[in-house]
Amino acid sequence: MSDNLDAYRVSKEPYYRPVADEVELYEAAYSVRMPMMLKGPTGCGKTRFVEHMAWKLKKPLITVACNEDMTASDLVGRFLLDANGTRWQDGPLATAARHGAICYLDEVVEARQDTTVVIHPLTDNRRVLPLEKKGELLRAHPDFQIVISYNPGYQSLMKDLKQSTKQRFGALDFNYPEHAVEAEIVAHETGVDIEVANKLVSIAERARNLKGHGLDEGISTRMLIYAGSLIATGVAAQAACRVTLVRPITDDPDMRDALDSAVATFF
Amino acid sequence: MSDNLDAYRVSKEPYYRPVADEVELYEAAYSVRMPMMLKGPTGCGKTRFVEHMAWKLKKPLITVACNEDMTASDLVGRFLLDANGTRWQDGPLATAARHGAICYLDEVVEARQDTTVVIHPLTDNRRVLPLEKKGELLRAHPDFQIVISYNPGYQSLMKDLKQSTKQRFGALDFNYPEHAVEAEIVAHETGVDIEVANKLVSIAERARNLKGHGLDEGISTRMLIYAGSLIATGVAAQAACRVTLVRPITDDPDMRDALDSAVATFF
Amino acid sequence: MSDNLDAYRVSKEPYYRPVADEVELYEAAYSVRMPMMLKGPTGCGKTRFVEHMAWKLKKPLITVACNEDMTASDLVGRFLLDANGTRWQDGPLATAARHGAICYLDEVVEARQDTTVVIHPLTDNRRVLPLEKKGELLRAHPDFQIVISYNPGYQSLMKDLKQSTKQRFGALDFNYPEHAVEAEIVAHETGVDIEVANKLVSIAERARNLKGHGLDEGISTRMLIYAGSLIATGVAAQAACRVTLVRPITDDPDMRDALDSAVATFF
Amino acid sequence: MSDNLDAYRVSKEPYYRPVADEVELYEAAYSVRMPMMLKGPTGCGKTRFVEHMAWKLKKPLITVACNEDMTASDLVGRFLLDANGTRWQDGPLATAARHGAICYLDEVVEARQDTTVVIHPLTDNRRVLPLEKKGELLRAHPDFQIVISYNPGYQSLMKDLKQSTKQRFGALDFNYPEHAVEAEIVAHETGVDIEVANKLVSIAERARNLKGHGLDEGISTRMLIYAGSLIATGVAAQAACRVTLVRPITDDPDMRDALDSAVATFF
Amino acid sequence: MSDNLDAYRVSKEPYYRPVADEVELYEAAYSVRMPMMLKGPTGCGKTRFVEHMAWKLKKPLITVACNEDMTASDLVGRFLLDANGTRWQDGPLATAARHGAICYLDEVVEARQDTTVVIHPLTDNRRVLPLEKKGELLRAHPDFQIVISYNPGYQSLMKDLKQSTKQRFGALDFNYPEHAVEAEIVAHETGVDIEVANKLVSIAERARNLKGHGLDEGISTRMLIYAGSLIATGVAAQAACRVTLVRPITDDPDMRDALDSAVATFF
Amino acid sequence: MSDNLDAYRVSKEPYYRPVADEVELYEAAYSVRMPMMLKGPTGCGKTRFVEHMAWKLKKPLITVACNEDMTASDLVGRFLLDANGTRWQDGPLATAARHGAICYLDEVVEARQDTTVVIHPLTDNRRVLPLEKKGELLRAHPDFQIVISYNPGYQSLMKDLKQSTKQRFGALDFNYPEHAVEAEIVAHETGVDIEVANKLVSIAERARNLKGHGLDEGISTRMLIYAGSLIATGVAAQAACRVTLVRPITDDPDMRDALDSAVATFF
């Protein structure tokens, strides 16, 4: 990756509405460069939070969407073929470590369990990354920090972080915000008025009670913002909710009826 | 892929007969660049719909038939070897994001579950695609939109989209059109008269009732068009139906008898 | 593959003895370029039929023996390394589509289920093949047609075509020919007299009744031609039948006795 | 592979003692270039037989020891990198087909089931081998024949030839020779006198009765030749039998006792 | 890897508080270059111990974090492409063997069981490493020693070292230190006073009793150091313990309550 | 690999104490170049024996530690990229066959079952190795012999040699030596006096009785040499036994107690 991390700087303040002491705790953790784990369901604002903190701390942020096919080389780097033979190219983790960015591994549990082992030497007091293929022992920049996200409702026996990985991180819990806060967020992000936002949050709250009773996940804040943004373009509220809150998450007719009538209750 | 997306422009209006408010909802979704998911059984017109919308919105359309062996690199791009070393080549997703096309991932559920993770950063407010191998953080063109198709009768425990993927899309349901509309489509596409088209639709309706009772899928609109096109060349209706409606979808003798006698009822 | 398809033209009429209206139906299907699926047991003449039709329609025929290790690139093409860097080479499917051949995918069910997805865009009204690695959207030549073969007794839960693939094809059933026709074929192909050919067909008919009762497949027409050709070189009929009809298909002593005594009944 | 097949010619007559009409049947099969399958237990002389026939027919013989990791490219050929880019190199099957050798695929059932599909077009009347990567349709040399070996006691549900492969071959059964013939072979190959050879064959006969009762395979002719060759160097017969007949095939103490006492009975 | 091992020298004495005779035993083992295995739970100080010994023995230390995807080539080395063709690059194991470092394979049980076979020739009296791809038989430098770590609570039936590997190592047991020692370590590493450190150790002791009763692993010394370091920055003790001791290792509400009340008992 | 096998010559006589007629039997087997299989538990001296024989017969010895990831190319050879294109490099098996070394495949059962098939043509009377990728039929040097090792207590249903492989080898059994012989070996190799060596062997004998009753393998001769060598450096006998005989092979507390008290009985 490029030496110039300007593209990874967060130039505009990302809107983030704190729900507890998470901002202060993260600042303390960053001050000792403690590796951090953000826990919580999908779409509740973990990614937004880390963007906000990167903006606040004025550090570049390199985000990696983890997946099963990701190899250690995808994180660390590899040799590329060049006109003059091979040329080393740092991967996102090495770039962040070398130049002092916050490296955010999103949904780290999706990566092959043992690929995560490559981050271990960066998470203890050595703060090094062995680039074995290059023969370099990269010492992390003083500004470097590693952050991972993790959805606890998600992991299965096959996919969980190893204890020896978990113990290397401090952890912050995230969840959907309280009613008033969430409505404020939806209104702020979409431009709908607070009354519509309140109704959308109420629908979401009903759906979240169905989690585990036919729904794998509740309706997230992100989905409410989708609904609000369609409504803001002039789509009828019921149609907007159908397209953004109901149809995407279930194909079960009974569950659709239940959600549709929750929508009808409020709009 | 080439910078020139002219080959991907839909020059002639694709015939599409709306069944409800799907055209308006899609236009509203596109106006806020909301990622969209088209749900419905095989052969009911999802691909035709997205071609129609691309034509209507005057945007190039890049279609990717997803499959299990597709890697993230197939979507994002890779380095190719050149006389002067390596040269980066955008994949279809990167091409669409860079130059402002609609990118349509057909049967996305066939792709490895975690390959789909690469589309996440394009589906939230960041609208970026990290080209990690190239070290570029590609910001999507303002015209770019991502659309996926999804057959709900299809997914198994092994193959389903993750909740964190589903929640990133608005969704539109598709199904076989009503009798009169479907007959109109068959007649329009094949040149058979409306009476023959009506009969073909009636046969399909009988077969669709057998779905789940010995048939995995009903007879689709696409198959009716196949039958009509053979009839239009002069093949006898019963033979045409046998070749296009019955033989392709079942080898079970009883089921074949049932379908053959449905054909005999109408022709 | 080479641009010159002369090697793929069928210069001499392949002997084919029609059993019903399959030649006419195929001609009608070809006239509208409908993708076709040839269904039937191994060795009953599907490959011979498609060669005959290619000869009759005066189109080059590119045959691909599908297998589990076949990748999409094997069908579509790949970049090869050259003195001047990389050079694109069309695969057999792209060659057929570009230059207007009939592309015959033999035993398509052997291919990985999702590899077959690459043929989808060639089987609907778009008739295109996206060469994603090359960045080309190949539009099929007007003469191009795709044909697949499929053995219905063969597929298992693990290996079957997807419904969304099946629905893209018209289908023709094949089976072993009737006694007189099959004897005529055996005599024609091997030079044995019709009396010997009749006996061979009678043996095959007995064996075919054992299918599912200890034999996985019956004795095919192809095997009878093998037996006849050995007899024609002067080998004793019983020895020829032992080598070509019995020993290849079973190692079970009882089944071998049953088949050997069927041979002894006629010779 | 090299164009020059001289290294593959069998210059000295390999000793082979026919047991029935197998030599004549093979000659008739070769005269019509029928693909042949040699069936029988390990070490009973299948490889020796095909070497003998290649010598008798004065054709070069290319032997391929099949294995699970063998790819189609290992048989067909591949592009190699050269100073001037890539250069095609025929694999053993293509070499044999191009220059007219007998190609012997030893233990073909070990190859991945679908790798064997690549030999199909060479086994029917087309006698072609599509070199898809090279874009060449190789027509087999008139002298080319394909021969495979197959151990029927071996195949499992997971590893068996497909019916559509089996039906493409004539088959010859092989087994351990009769007592007198086998003793003659052992004496001829090792130089021990006929009395010792007779004793070794008697030991083998006892062991073969244990097949399926604690032994996976009996003692093969090859093993008797090993025993004889150690005896011929002056090793005591019991020690020689222990090293070559007993210790290699079983670690079960009871079975070792049974075999050791069979040895002690004769020596 | 580079010939220059200076980057791998441990320049500053790593803090290590011995608990028994492990330092002396290791020195004796090193004096005969006996391969050593460090056994114990995650985060109890195995890595720190080997760093301390490398510092004490004044030998460079090359650490490899083992993982499932690690190949023998990752340890041994590989050819890299260069302007002048290929160039051999030693892997970390070959570098250590060639130049006389201590090679520490961390969490060796994560490596594929048979990858560990490559270390065998370095662990017996031959002390060689065959670089098969390079055609070199590398004889180990007199200073070279191999050390592995191993978490006995970790291995499953699928993942355990082979007996033939285990028998090649001397072994030292590690565990969490006694209360007073552990408190001393926490105070020394974080700067909190001994009273706070004592409380943190007491919390850990309670949690360690829950191992196997709802917790997969106890709270490690490393985690206590994390807690202490947050407290040292001014974070309230309960919040610091929540972030570093409780949230990372469990999502079970009852277990969280149990741990939280253990925290509340002491702070 | 290099043409020069000097690095593979065994220059100093490796200490080996024969236990029966294995040296003479091996010499006879080598005189007819019979492939040999050395059977026995881990650490009982199989590798030492083959080194001793290579020294005695004055032949170079090429040892390959087999593993699951070893491919046929790792044994046979491969093309490497060079300034002038590709260059063939013999693998260890081809090197041994070409230049007349003894090739020792250690723990051959670890290799993928079918990789072992590549050695077949070298083990029968043809004594050839087809280098299929190079197009060369390599005839083995007259001095070449192949030797494999095999631990009978080890193989599982998944990992065993095929009968058709086993039958190609003569076999020699190995086991731990008798008390006096083993004590003599331990004293000779470590320098401890014979009394200490006797005690160590007595401890091992007790442990070997536990094999199958809680221990997977007994204490090997190699481990006794480890214990002796620590004692020789001045470590207390009990501590030395703990580190080298007990801790490496079991983590079960009861088993550790049993072994520790066996140690205490003698020291």
UniProtKB/TrEMBL annotation, chains A, B, C, D, E, F:
Swiss-Prot/TrEMBL keywords: ATP-binding, Nucleotide-binding
Domain ATPase dynein-related AAA: 36-169
Family matches, as InterPro entries: ATPase_dyneun-rel_AAA (IPR011704), CbbQ/NirQ/NorQ/GpvN (IPR050764), CbbQ_C (IPR013615), P-loop_NTPase (IPR027417)
SUPFAM superfamilies: P-loop containing nucleoside triphosphate hydrolases
Domain CbbQ/NirQ/NorQ C-terminal residues, every copy: 182-265
GO molecular function annotations of the record: ATP binding; ATP hydrolysis activity
Similarity comment: Belongs to the CbbQ/NirQ/NorQ/GpvN family.
Protein name: AAA family ATPase
Organism this protein belongs to: Hydrogenophaga crassostreae
